[in-house]
């Protein structure tokens, strides 16, 4: 054995690590570019449609106004000729002719005004839409920059301790637990989730969804969302409760989730669910909002590693086994989803959280892009609010878009 071998092995390891990092950065840059291009293309297409519609309405209005002017002219001339002839025979005809001409003119003016209002409305809609787009890009750009800058190593050393300041509140006993019917913990005594309103039937009779919430969410809030989700999807909904510790501490946890190194209580039960679904090849549907998406990413990554070590199998085999898992994400990370499950994303361009997460992920390139899958479907939409945080709402924004995309389901259930 040569004394140089350990040094060579260390050098090779460092070289491989550097190569992986560079590869991850390159992949990440491509993903960001692709996502940005897709969003720009989407917004440009919407703007073109609006502009085209405005032009078409304007042209139609112009043609109609010209046509109306011709009709008015003809009617006035006809009335004048008729009045001149009849005036010789009957003096009252002059008054009658004037009334007819006036009525025709009034009708023409009203019709032209209505068309002008339509053209004006179309122009206002186009201008408003472009203003919304500009507003959304401004909010997103600021959020992206803040997320990227504050998570860089030098600033993070100052920034993250500030997030942890303040006293911890009393521990939430349900943090990381699965909750279901009546917003209580799922157990053998309470095995069912939240059912759609008006349904009274046993657990397992409807499609099942497991939902994990985002930051600054208490038990009351997650239970409200679970009820709305059950109604909107006609499903039995279980909740994986991610308790809040205050906004700043929740943000600090998010950074650990992005680095896939957190001690977040909700990660372990979700990982267990994913591993069991992969082992039994039983479909599992996950809905994740905000920080819940980051927790889901971390849980999938850990589940894949556990499958590879337990059996053992290759990464490709683990990814194939994870194909039974379906994830719908809302207002959360657009990148960093491990390969294997099927992904469907909903992103509001007016929501500052997804770009802020993307900015933070640039400080964790290896964890984000070394194992990163594309979404099968990505629904990009614009729902602006004066307060940008309101654009992040699961109940008022993202579930409404889910209904718009999927349509209202026909819920077959036994009446209560």
Which word captures the global form?
globular
CATH fold topology of the largest domain: Rossmann fold
Average of the residue pLDDT scores:
79
Low-confidence stretches: 31-58, 60-77
The largest sheet is: 7 strands, mixed
If strands are numbered along the chain, what order do they take across the biggest sheet? Answer: 1-3-2-4-5-6-7
Oligomeric state of the chains in view:
single chain
**Could you say how many structural domains there are in total?**
2
Tell me, what is the CATH class of the largest domain?
A: Alpha Beta
- Total strand segments: 7
Order of helices and strands: HHHEEHEHHEHHEEHHEH
Percentage of β-strand residues: 5-15%
Helix/strand structural class? alpha/beta
| Rg, alpha carbons | 31 Å
Annotation field: number of helices: 11
**Helical residues, percent:** 55-70%
Distance from N terminus to C terminus (CA atoms, Å) equals 77 Å
Written overview of the protein:
The protein folds into 2 domains: 12-147; 175-406, 3-Layer(aba) Sandwich (Rossmann fold). It has helices spanning 4-89, 92-150, 153-163, 219-233, 247-258, 267-280, 291-310, 315-321, 353-361, 365-369, 394-406; strands spanning 178-179, 208-212, 236-240, 284-289, 325-330, 342-348, 377-381. It has 416 residues and is of the alpha/beta class. The protein has a 7-stranded mixed beta sheet with strand order 1-3-2-4-5-6-7, sandwiched between helices.
